[in-house]
Amino acid sequence: MSNKNITISKDLFTPAHIDPANSEKIAKKSLNFWQDSWLRVRKNKGAVVSLVVLAIMLIMAFVGPMITPYDFDTQNTKHNNLPPRIQGLEDVEWLPFDGTLSRRDGTVYNAYEVRKIDAYYWFGTDNLGRDQFARIWKGTQVSLFIAFMAALIDMAIGVAYGAVSGYLGGKVDGVMQRIIEVIVGIPNLIVVVLMILVLKPGIIPIIIALTITGWTSMARVVRAQVLKFKGQEFVLAAKTLGASNSSIIFKHMIPNMFGVIIINTMFSIPNAIFFEAFLSFIGLGLQEPNASLGTLVNSGFKSMIAFPYQMIIPSLMIAIIMVCFNLVADGLRDALDPKMRD
């Protein structure tokens, strides 16, 4: 066979002409994981409304005590047990802010006019004449602080403990998991009550008591995630490149668990709020003159029949906070779960 010289023309490699007006376009904008999750959260109306309500309550927890002219711990026994009264709403009969109370025989009277008091207490007063509006928002502030601190400490301890246990495995994992089983085997209420009795009631002792056993669920969830990730390619690649164990755990594994960690933390916050309210209700919470939602429910329970507003309003606050946190947590779980993607 003879060799022939083949001449290749440049025209053979001329780029094809593409008309931008008629070419195909990507209909959906490229989104990362967190942007896509946020879009799915926004589609959940319950979660969005709950986020707005929680934001308003968080703002009011700090601003509310400043709006009213009365301090949350100032006593005025001459103004004790006054019902809610708000300017401009006194003539609206179907709203409970007209300053009226009911006697046992069913007659209704204006407590402010009968006692000749020219003042407005938006949520009424307690048995010592302290403004309930200021005390409720101050109590909301304290309850939210305790819940957030307990949840953050649970998250920090649980993530570190579970990650180390799952990654090291073997005998270390066996010993660490037996420790968790011992802690979980002791009733949570007994541990918390004993800690409160030893440390004396207060904000810091309550946070410590709530975190003693609260981190175990987070540790188990994180351990399960670490066991799933431990054999995957990105972990093996990090080991091959000489990354240390701590670097693999905290720089490579934990960032891939943020969704699970956030969901569990959000579910732990309402549990902490309820537990703090329960401790305060049975007398193991904050002591006077400090206020939390649990202490307000406890003091209002004693005069529930004569002055129901003293217990109903703080109870509603606890219920609203817990429902909103649970709805937000449900929305985040649906948004951050890869299996729920469209």
Element layout with pairings:
Layout: H1 33-43, H2 45-67, E1 100-102, E2 108-110, H3 111-114, H4 132-168, H5 170-185, H6 188-199, H7 203-214, H8 216-229, H9 233-240, H10 245-253, H11 258-281, H12 293-301, H13 309-336
Antiparallel strand pairs: 1-2
Short structural description:
The chain has helices spanning 33-43, 45-67, 111-114, 132-168, 170-185, 188-199, 203-214, 216-229, 233-240, 245-253, 258-281, 293-301, 309-336; strands at 100-102, 108-110. It is mainly α.
If you had to describe this structure to a student in words, what would you say it looks like?
The chain is an all-alpha fold and 342 residues long. The chain has a single domain (35-68, 135-340), classed as Orthogonal Bundle (MetI-like fold). Helices cover 61% and strands 2% of the residues. It has helices spanning 33-43, 45-67, 111-114, 132-168, 170-185, 188-199, 203-214, 216-229, 233-240, 245-253, 258-281, 293-301, 309-336, and strands spanning 100-102, 108-110.
